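Example complex used in Figure S2.
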Amino acid sequence: MRNLKKLVGAFSGRYDYLVLTKGPNLAYAVGMPDALGLVVDLRSGYSILYVSRLDYSRAKATTAVDKVVAVASAEIPPRRPGEELVVAPSILEALKSVVRERVASDNKEVGVDVSGEVAELRAAKEEWEVELIKAALRVTESVYVKLGQMRLVGMRERDVAGLVYRWFMEEGADGVAFDPIVASGPNGAYPHYRFGDRRIEYGDYVVVDIGAKKGVYCSDMTRTFAPGRFGVLKDAMYAVYEAVKAAEKAAREGVAAAEVDKAARDVIAEYGFAQYFIHSTGHGVGVEVHEPPRLFVTSKDVLKKGHVVTIEPGVYIEGVGGVRIEDMVYIDGGAAVLNRVPHIL
Amino acid sequence: MRNLKKLVGAFSGRYDYLVLTKGPNLAYAVGMPDALGLVVDLRSGYSILYVSRLDYSRAKATTAVDKVVAVASAEIPPRRPGEELVVAPSILEALKSVVRERVASDNKEVGVDVSGEVAELRAAKEEWEVELIKAALRVTESVYVKLGQMRLVGMRERDVAGLVYRWFMEEGADGVAFDPIVASGPNGAYPHYRFGDRRIEYGDYVVVDIGAKKGVYCSDMTRTFAPGRFGVLKDAMYAVYEAVKAAEKAAREGVAAAEVDKAARDVIAEYGFAQYFIHSTGHGVGVEVHEPPRLFVTSKDVLKKGHVVTIEPGVYIEGVGGVRIEDMVYIDGGAAVLNRVPHIL
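Predicted assembly (690 residues):
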């Protein structure tokens, strides 16, 4: 609701209506990613949320919009007393009929794309949003603490993933921000590997990249467990650790996101691993686990107050394995690291 | 790979190139939902898969395409020996440059939307696809068997969800088809409720809707646990049970999907619950958990050999709770029910 007011404040005076149809924007505006569409009359602030018929009563109970309207392709079953229902072949047709009807009568321009501006609003988090992200991160960190106390050697990657899921739910997560990555030994060379049947061996580096949700807000964190802590990746571990520290030092309000990427990349290069750092240094996190700003060499983003971004350099060597360490930082003047768990477990 | 050949067979002779960019279609064609795009020269069968740079080596290792090309916004780090890299601002630009270059020289028409035809191909499952769906369903059913042996009373919904996730992974799931629904008591009135802090009480009806994945294939199944099995929903349970049986009897090759919906809806209506059955009777399941055909009154789909669809009538009463039973059936002449676990646990 607070975000809905923020959206109205940002767009009123410039447009008559705001129409949102993308899941993450609907999550942001009204907390319901599976709604179909939102129409806000920016002159009055009056909001109408469109949902599937089976979500009608849930939308009424859990969102704070002025009106909920169900959309269905037929009036079967017959509508119940008080149920607002639009019969339309699709949500787009339902939205168009409402918006066009009104806009046509005013003789105004239709269809200015404001998705970029919505993304910018979403990127600058309010304090209460940061608190939710921190709560999601606390749940995530509690799992790392538990994993750190276990002997992972002998477990299958999928067993570790199963524990992560279970502990998330037990600790109060409202869902997962993304499916867990538990990449052991050579599997660690694939940054987006998920998990499989491989048993963790002594000497493996095990990349664990997980994130819980609180409300609709995500967390995102990586630690690399190294039961033996030796072999070729030992140097990579130090390189990545130093790169994280350098990027966190470089990150602050007003700094180009590309600069933060460079800070991490330079350290990795000093250690001789430049060509093995094959992704960006980080990204924004909010109602989506990947959202602006992007911390990469080609990024034109500038870090601003309220940004919550990951710092996650990594080294990936095919046939050998990988190392990644990922923190979350909050930009408010400097960069406050939101993580409490050590970088090397 | 078998699906890629099927796609080539379906489109060659009619078009020169097939371009796929949607996650589910990429999962179907090459088993990699997080690839960015696939271009197939339909005259030669030669296939090029575009991926993010961090997925390049995983794509090389896990897909059977002729060529993998990485897309990045800059050549940083420098490409490694043998690495195919396109520097482009977006995947669309990368795809366009390849396709247009070729097509322009042939002076042919560009951009026929074949997504409907691809959806039809995907809907008609081959035997090996049905086997994967069945394997995913076996994992799912093993969880119902375990839950059926437990005393759910006193557990929080989120504790049940945590067990579901953990057991899925331990039993060999490659992921979840969707986040678990554990809706107890009044929460059962929301068909798409997820899970929360509520403790299950004696007398509750608890709707548990879950599905594991095997490879990229989904399963989808619901049972309603009723520790007390009394109250107003007792009749609803019988209504839903009878509706499932009626729909499964009606489902067969050549029958309109709307007819199957009607068979379930008529039973629910006989029991006096017509207005509480607020969604369709079922949907196709494959690489997506919801895909064509759709089993609803307005559906124009006809059941065909190879379709795998859910049968899932439900009754939802606000303030009271809900009942849903969901099976999966395979159309091959008649409808073979793929589930083995009883309807009422």
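Residues 127-148 of chain A form the longest helix (22 residues). Chain A touches chain B through 52 residues (CB under 8 Å).
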